Amino acid sequence: LNLIIMYRKSAVLLSLLSVVALAAAAFDPASYTGGSKTLNVNYKVYWRTDSSNIYLALDSASTGWFGFAIGESGSGSMPGADFVTVQFDNGVASVVDRWNDQFGLPKVDCSQDWTLVNFERANGRSIAEIRRPLNTSDTQDRPIVAGPTRILYAWGDSQTPSYHGDNRGLDAIEFVSSGYVLPPLPSDGVYADFLMPNVSVPTSETTYACKSFPLPSDRPYHAVSVQALVQPATSVPYVHHFIAYLCKYENTNGNYPKIYENTVGTCSSPIGVSTSGCSMVLYVWASGVGELRMPPEAGYPIGPNTNYLVLEVHYNNPSGTMGIVDNSGVRVMYTPTIRANEAATLVMGDPLTQFSPLAAAQSNLHTEASCTSTCTSNWPHDINVIGSFLHMHQHGKRMWTSHWRAGQRLPDINRVDFYSYHLQQLTDLIGNDFSQSDMHAMTLGLSHSLSRYKL
Question: What letter does residue 258 receive in the DSSP assignment?
Answer without folding.
Answer: H
